[in-house]
Design goal:
By secondary structure, this protein is mainly alpha-helical. It has 3 domains: about 40 residues, no CATH class; about 70 residues; about 60 residues. About 60% of the residues lie in helices and about 10% in strands. The chain has 9 helices and 3 strands, in the order βββααααααααα. The longest helix is centred in the last third of the chain and has 25 residues.
């Protein structure tokens, strides 16, 4: 029993007591192409932060230096409650900035707001302590890891030194960064 739906004749068939619409193959292919094209052309609207460059610049300067509730309060005071996104959107924007900084190879110094001593709660003990990071950069690879740990414990104290595995992971990270830099320099020569 054929039915007309939007000027297309669709036949209904029963298979295993279930009703199915039977559509000619060329019409189905056209429908799929049109649907994919619509999905490919869809662009989400920009966020309040992306629409307001002054707000974006303000957030780039402040994020990572203060707790998020303070950042939100400062934004509301400066731009008004109706022009400020939610705290979750601000945090997502911060994560986007951090990803971009890492992808661009900017060692977290993007726009002057992501120095190693202001990375926030996700930073390791080494990243939060520039003196410890510099000390480890100088001695890692010159001594066995046990001696490095003993030296750091004597110099910085047990509460300021991370675990042996964290120090080893930091050393691996430094080695990867050095290899990347050496690889980039050899490309330009």
């Amino acid at each position: 029993m054929p039915k007309k739906i939007k000027y297309v004749e669709i036949e209904v068939a029963k298979i295993d007591r279930q009703k199915y619409a039977v559509v000619p193959l060329h019409e189905y292919e056209a429908f799929v192409r049109e649907h994919r094209l619509k999905r490919a052309c869809f662009r989400p609207r920009p966020s309040k932060i992306d629409q307001n460059p002054e707000l974006a610049a303000f957030l780039a300067d402040v994020l990572g230096t203060k707790p998020m509730p303070e950042v939100m309060a400062d934004c509301v005071a400066k731009f008004g409650a109706e022009n400020v996104p939610t705290i979750n959107r601000i945090y997502a924007h911060w994560q986007k900035l951090r990803r971009q900084a890492i992808l661009d190879g900017e060692k977290r110094s993007m726009l002057g707001s992501f120095s190693l001593d202001r990375l926030g709660p996700h930073a390791s003990k080494i990243e939060r302590n520039p003196e410890l990071a510099a000390h480890l950069a100088n001695i890692l690879g010159t001594k066995p890891i046990d001696e490095v740990m003993a030296d750091c414990l004597a110099k910085f104290g047990a509460s300021n030194v991370p675990s042996k595995s964290a120090v080893y992971n930091h050393w691996q990270k430094l080695r990867r960064q050095a290899a990347e830099i050496a690889g980039k320099e050899s490309d330009y020569e």
